[in-house]
Write a structure and sequence with these properties.
single chain; 1442 residues; alpha+beta; 11-stranded antiparallel sheet; 7-stranded mixed sheet; 57 strands; 28% helix; rod-shaped
């Protein structure tokens, strides 16, 4: 139970006080009414004695009475009806609310910190009113009148006669059978005569004379002269007189000044009780004549039916806020004619009445009763002295209540000794003689139980328990079982809930004072029932306070019973108290995962707040229901949502011009908000395919984003003619959570800004958003003015600055996440701030909406219909930036950077380029050449220039060389739709046709970046609205599979802008390539040398294999031409040409070509192209697109090789000697194989064409068109291909280094020395000799030596045989060299020298003349470098005999 100001002893004493009746003449009431008070109200604040009172008990022992309080009430002849009492109690609770600004108690229990009101004044007011309104009953005398004051004014003509008249009236009321109410304690009631004198108008000597007459008639102890109204009513109120009446009369005035006009009950009042109904319910009805003077009670109803329940809401109609009405009412002052002296006189009057009249009368009555009981019972002289005798000896076991018969109809006559004992006990209790009272109650209880008079017994048990508790010194413990028995008897046997409730209220307070909170709570809960919601609510609330005040607070029990109390308050019409209970309970349930309980509490709080017009609280409560992850059913969630919308609508109607409220639904994932700058991508139109660029439909990929950034940085660096940019910032068209949002993004005037907002509907019911648009703020600025960024003085802010697109209907199904794309169209430059979204939130009527209903379907289609309930509101878009983690301070604290994606700067107009690809293929063969067209269109109002395209795969496409566009296509090329420039050849020879070209013509010059390609626009400018179509050739990548090739188009405005320097357009082409041809080539030095030295040539072996899979539909490949490209070498002729000139390769077939290459006669900077044509048309390989793709693939190959070489680093640079030796084996020869493929597609034969490139770096090293994967080798089935992944020469060279010894020069590998000197034997292949004539056959042999290096070389020729194996002996046979066995000579750079040798044979046979061993060393080197020169081919000679 909540705390209270009084102690429990004071509370119990004040609950039962001596009652004194007051009977006033009409003139006396008029005198007191000058102070706006009745007589009883006038003396009420002074009815507690300030001093101790002494009296003697029946044993003549002195008994001290402290803080005695008496109650003086007007005589009412009709008992109040139960309905009227309930209404009074309801009003008392209604007007008693928690004080505003009251600091609540903070109770900490476990994890809970609860704010709970320390006191419950509404309960105390209810309890006080309830006890005072208890009607008098026959089984007890506590509410019976002990005395009666007769009050007459001194201004009456005959006051003494008036006293006589009033005395007769009192006698008639008490002893006439006509009046059964009120009840009187004893027949001989004390009558106290009070003469009321109005000092301000009356004659004092007349009053004194009348008072003297009264003293002679009634005795000095039976009458009193009370002088009041010492201050005239017309005097100024300068003197501040305290008003002690307000605390007693405040509640009553509130009740009566705001009557329930629409209620079913009416309060009867009369002219003498203008505005006041005393709290005890006993008013003054003094009228002329006795006949109708005491007929009605102020709480009397206008009809007698009290069957209606006053705890429901039926009688609380229009007046929902009595507490507020109190503030607006004018307060009536009390005691305006009284001075402080008058206050003292009234106080003295009460004291005189008590001391001289009341207490002597009670003491005398107790003695009389004691004497009667002793004489009747035949006991000893004093009941007090016989107490021990009564309670000594063996005890008779008491029967339980259930065993006793119900004898509620049993009535004792007034003179019955049992009632006399009870009467004596009540008198002793009223004067605080609790020990004697307990003895009498205990005796009476036994008598009543023996007689089975249960109502009487229960009353005696109740008061015996209270008396035992109040006894000073606590001689015996509180008999709680007495109270339990009394409560059970009242409730179950006597069916009297009022008496049972009184027992509970008293006992609970006693148990609470003993810290027995658990027992008190059980007692309070026990009396809750369905017959009174108000009583149940109050008791449940007190039980909840008991649980929280226990030594170990029971927090959840507190909350649960608070909920129960709130529910019963609500049923009783006490909306404010219901709301308070639910709010206090919410502290326990909040955030503990009990979502259903939270929902119920919030829903009730919302409803009660709405009823009380606390709309903000109602909105907040309903908002909590919706924003938490609700586990309610769909129907329940729908009900919550409808209530919320209804409440919100009422709130918005109160302030229609106020700011839009914040709506809780649907959820917005702010960090997932994406902002896109620019127009939507155009759909494909026929063969036209627009550039993919950027769109909101694309998912973010960090790797791709980095690639695009590199491309843009590369092209910007190229344009600015620098290698790296320090402050480069990439262009961002789409901003999301992964992009760099620390800078203000740039938008362009007249180009839309699309904001994608991620909505999520957490409910199981669909939501319908209508008229959904963005909320923004715009500050116009002129960025072209001299003061850059000057703010315009423009106040108008509307559609002329920013156009907004609204979504008329946006349906979100249950638990759906859906994106809404909202657009803004800026029409002026300035700073734009996107603040949030604004929309109407509503629901739909039908629940049969299927998932996936398109939000574009309108209401008119009948798919879904709104229920008409929607509210306009907004949600802010607040995006938290990334957490900062750079400095130490940022690492040790939590700081977030800015996120400015919603704050774009709108710049002046910029050109806008759109690119369309016409007939762009999706699939190609590896190496296939395809011609397409690209259309460039300027869709803005500004001319654009400087269009460039950059790609990481420049070998994939070309716009042609510098002269490609101007070169007319040949008729044959047009006829066959060839992508190449061709001419018809009539020669049947297979000799090469040569041409030359400069790599710079194809964008691969020295110092340039082939990745950045200028788009050859006419005049380099594209005017507004203009479009240009340019040819573009594509070449399928050499690797099969799916390729994503990124193009980035760069362009600028002709005018320079301060904010935006350039713009870009992205395109990602997806090409699927399938296998075509696999080509490998090897170059060898030819051994054919003539003495002139003109025969410096090489043999090129080209293997071509058709590795195409049958799925591609390729019938066969035709090799139409092989071209070479080199600065030093050129192909001369084909050696192994078969009779059929056409080279066809069917599936899995392989062809081998042997080509002769000769050195170019003149060293030139340009590349020499040599074409060997196998068909009827020559493809001019030195023009676009053949040369373009060759140079671009050559660049890519060199770039790839360079990146591989950069991984391997040597400790020191190679010395010049080693480098010279290496250069001997290097070959700068590139092979281009051009082919045609015949494809059958849709029963039509198509001719595809393409080209493959092979780069030959060194003699004897096999090169391939593209290093295939391991699995590809197995398909080829050729072990020779295992060499494809052998180590590069540089890696092999690295293996020969000896890091530990820097003094030893680097030594090249042996195979590189074999390229230093080229040796060739000239001799007759068949030599006939007559061995019969001459036994020795001598054959002249010429040894040609060629220095392949650029330095002088010393050569040693050793002719001695050195057999390494038995086979060589057999091959060499018995021939020998004649003459010197060793020759030494020096060869200058590129010199060719001949040496005449003689071979001697002794018989016929086939001999290998390739036995001379050649040793070579550079002239300026030591012999350490001498090594054997190996001959690659045998030199066979046939010796015949003639």
């Amino acid at each position: 139970m909540a705390q209270r100001v009084q102690s429990v002893q004071e509370f119990l004493q004040d609950s039962f006080v001596p009652l004194v009746a007051a009977l006033c003449s009409e003139e006396a009431e008029r005198v007191t009414r000058k102070n706006n008070l009745g007589f009883c109200e006038l003396i009420k604040p002074f009815c507690r004695l300030t001093s101790e009172v002494h009296m003697r008990d029946p044993n003549n022992q002195l008994h001290i009475i402290k803080n005695l309080k008496i109650a003086v009430n007007n005589i009412i002849t009709q008992p109040p009806q139960q309905g009227a009492i309930r209404k009074l109690l309801h009003d008392v609770v209604t007007v008693s609310q928690p004080a505003e600004g009251l600091v609540a108690n903070v109770i900490t229990a476990g994890d809970y910190d609860l704010n709970i009101s320390a006191t419950t004044p509404w309960f105390e007011a209810y309890r006080e009113s309830f006890l005072q309104c208890m009607p008098a009953s026959d089984h007890e005398f506590l509410n019976h009148y002990v005395a009666c004051m007769l009050v007459v004014s001194s201004s009456e003509p005959e006051p003494v006669e008036q006293f006589l008249k009033l005395s007769q009236e009192q006698h008639q009321i008490q002893h006439s059978n006509e009046y059964s109410y009120p009840k009187w304690f004893i027949p001989n009631t004390l009558k106290y005569y009070v003469l009321l004198h109005d000092v301000s108008v009356g004659e004092e000597h007349r009053a004194d004379s009348i008072y003297e007459e009264m003293k002679q008639r009634y005795g000095t102890q039976g009458c009193y002269l009370l002088k009041i109204n010492s201050r005239g009513s017309n005097r100024g109120a300068d003197e501040q007189i305290p008003d002690p009446w307000s605390q007693y009369l405040q509640k009553n005035s509130i009740q009566t000044q705001e009557p329930y006009e629409d209620g079913p009950y009416t309060i009867i009042s009369n002219k003498n009780s203008d505005h006041f109904i005393p709290l005890d319910g006993l008013g003054n009805d003094s009228k002329d004549g006795l006949s109708n003077n005491y007929k009605s009670h102020p709480l009397q109803l206008d009809h007698t039916s009290d069957s209606s329940c006053f705890d429901g809401t039926d009688y609380v109609k229009a007046n929902a806020s009595l507490h507020e009405s109190k503030k607006s009412n004018t307060w009536t002052p009390h005691g305006t004619c009284l001075t402080l002296t008058d206050h003292d006189r009234i106080r003295q009057f009460i004291q005189e009445f008590t001391f001289r009249g009341l207490l002597p009368h009670i003491e005398k009555t107790i003695r009389q009763l004691n004497d009667q009981l002793i004489s009747r019972k035949g006991l000893s002289r004093s009941l007090f002295s016989a107490t021990k005798k009564w309670f000594s000896g063996s005890k008779i076991p008491e029967k339980s209540v259930n065993e006793l018969k119900s004898t509620s109809g049993l009535l004792y006559p007034p003179e019955a000794p049992e009632l006399q004992i009870r009467k004596m006990a009540d008198l002793c209790f009223l004067v605080q003689h609790y020990e004697l009272a307990y003895s009498c109650y205990h005796t009476a209880k036994k008598d009543f139980l023996n007689d089975q008079a249960m109502l009487y017994a229960a009353g005696a048990l109740e008061m015996a328990a209270v008396s035992a508790f109040l006894q000073p010194g606590a001689p015996r413990p509180y008999p709680a079982h007495y109270m339990d028995t009394a409560i059970q008897t009242y409730r179950d046997i006597c069916k009297n809930m009022m008496l049972a409730e009184r027992c509970v209220l008293l006992s609970a307070e006693i148990l609470k004072s003993q810290s027995k909170y658990s027992e008190a709570a059980a007692l309070l809960i026990r009396l809750t029932s369905e017959d009174s919601d108000l009583r149940s609510a109050l008791l449940l609330e007190q039980a909840a306070h008991c649980f929280i005040n226990m030594k170990s607070p029971m927090v959840r029990k507190f909350a649960f019973h608070m909920i129960l109390a709130g529910h019963r308050y609500s049923k009783a019409g006490q909306k404010k108290h219901a709301l308070r209970c639910y709010c206090q309970a919410m502290q326990v349930y909040k955030g503990k995962g009990w979502s259903l309980a939270e929902d119920h509490i919030n829903f009730t709080i919302g409803r009660q707040s709405f009823t009380l017009r606390q709309l903000d609280n109602a909105v907040s409560a309903f908002r909590h229901i919706l924003i938490n992850e609700s586990k309610q059913t769909a129907a329940q969630q729908g009900a919550f949502l409808r209530e919320y919308l209804y409440v919100y609508k009422n709130v918005s109607q109160l302030s229609p011009d106020g700011p839009s409220p914040q709506l809780p639904l649907p959820y917005i994932n702010s960090s997932a908000t994406r902002v896109f700058f620019g127009h939507d991508r155009r759909p494909a139109e026929g063969e036209k395919q627009a550039a993919t660029h950027i769109s909101l439909d694309q998912e973010y990929d960090s790797e791709f984003s980095h690639q695009w950034k590199e491309l843009e940085e590369q092209v910007v660096a190229t344009v600015n003619k620098c290698t790296a940019l320090s402050n480069f910032q990439p262009t961002q068209y789409c901003l999301n959570r992964y992009s760099d949002n620390s800078r203000f993004p740039l938008g362009v005037v007249e180009e839309p800004i699309t904001v994608e907002v991620a909505f999520r509907n957490p409910l199981k019911v669909p939501l319908l958003l209508t008229d959904l648009s963005l909320l923004w703020k715009f500050q116009p600025k002129d960025y072209n003015s001299k003061n850059n960024g000057e703010t315009k003085e423009v106040e108008t802010c509307g559609k002329d600055m920013i156009g907004a697109e609204a979504i008329s209907e946006f349906l979100m199904n249950s638990e759906e996440t859906k994106m809404a794309r909202l657009k803004l169209f800026p029409h002026q430059t300035g700073e734009l701030h996107i603040l949030g979204v604004v929309y109407n939130l509503g629901t739909i009527q039908s629940t049969s909406v299927l998932d996936g209903v398109d939000s574009s379907v309108g209401l008119q289609t009948g798919k879904y219909i709104t229920n008409g309930m929607s509210v306009r509101g907004q949600q802010d878009l607040e995006i938290q930036g990334p957490r900062l983690n750079n400095t130490k301070e940022e690492k040790t604290s939590i700081k977030y950077g800015p996120d400015r994606r919603l704050d774009p700067i709108i710049t002046e107009e910029m050109p806008l380029l759109e690119v369309f690809f016409i007939n762009f293929p999706t699939g190609l063969l590896c190496g296939e050449i395809r011609k397409t067209y690209v259309e460039f269109m300027n869709v803005s109002k500004c001319p654009l220039t400087g269009v460039k395209v950059v790609s990481k795969r420049p070998e994939f496409f070309t716009f042609g060389g510098s002269s490609a566009i101007l070169t007319p296509l040949s008729p044959s090329a047009s006829e066959h739709c060839s992508a190449y420039k061709t001419i018809v050849t009539h020669s049947t020879s297979v000799c090469s046709l040569t041409s030359s070209a400069d790599s710079s013509d194809f964008g691969v010059g020295t110092g340039s970046q082939p990745e950045v390609i200028d788009v050859p626009l006419p005049d380099s400018v594209l005017l507004p609205g203009a479009s240009v179509q340019l040819p573009m050739w594509l070449r399928g990548p050499d690797e099969e599979g799916v390729h994503e090739i990124n193009f980035l188009f760069y362009y600028e405005s002709i005018r320079k802008h301060s904010k935006m320097c350039h713009r870009i357009l992205r395109h990602t082409a997806v090409i699927c390539t399938s296998r075509s041809l696999a080509i490998r080539a090897t170059v060898y030095r030819s051994n054919a040398l003539d003495e002139k030295g003109d025969g410096d040539n090489m043999l090129v072996f080209v293997d071509v294999e058709n590795v195409n899979t049958s799925e591609a539909g390729v019938k066969e490949f035709h090799i139409v031409q092989v071209s070479s490209n080199s600065k030093n070498w050129k192909l001369q002729e084909s050696i192994n040409l078969s009779e059929d000139k056409d080279i066809k390769l069917a599936n899995r077939e392989k062809g081998k070509l042997c080509l002769k290459a000769v050195k170019c006669k003149h060293l030139v900077e340009n590349y020499t192209f040599a074409d060997i044509v196998f068909g009827s048309e020559q493809i001019i390989s030195s023009t676009s697109p053949c040369a373009d793709f060759f140079f671009r693939s050559l660049y890519s190959d060199l770039k790839r090789t360079h990146s591989q070489q950069s991984v391997h680093t040597s400790q020191g640079a190679l010395d010049s000697a080693v480098r010279l030796i290496q250069k001997c084996g290097e070959v700068d020869l590139n092979i281009i194989v051009l082919w045609k493929a015949y494809v059958v597609e849709d029963n039509k034969q198509l001719i595809l064409e393409g080209q493959h490139h092979v780069v030959l770096h060194a003699v004897g090293k096999e090169a391939v068109s593209f290093p295939q994967k391991q699995g590809f080798k197995k398909i080829l089935g050729n072990s020779d291909w295992e060499d494809l992944e052998q180590e590069s020469p540089e890696i092999g060279l690295f293996n020969f280094f000896r890091p530990e010894s820097t003094s030893v020069p680097a030594r090249p590998p042996l195979d590189q020395f074999s390229n230093l000197i080229k040796a060739s034997l000239r001799y007759p292949e068949i030599f006939s000799h007559s061995f019969h004539q001459k036994s020795l056959c001598i054959v002249p042999v010429t040894l040609l030596l060629s220095n392949c290096s650029q330095a002088d070389v010393d050569v040693i020729i050793d002719l001695r045989h050195k057999a390494t194996s038995p086979e060589t002996l057999e091959i060499h046979g018995s021939f020998t060299w004649l003459g010197q066995t060793q020759y030494k000579l020096q060869l200058k750079s590129q010199e060719v020298s001949s040496l005449q040798l003689k071979a001697c044979f002794v018989h016929t046979g086939v001999y290998n003349l390739g036995t001379p061993r050649v040793f070579a060393k550079l002239s300026d080197q030591v012999t350490l470098f001498e090594t054997s020169q190996q001959n690659s081919m045998p030199a066979l000679i046939i010796i015949n005999n003639i």
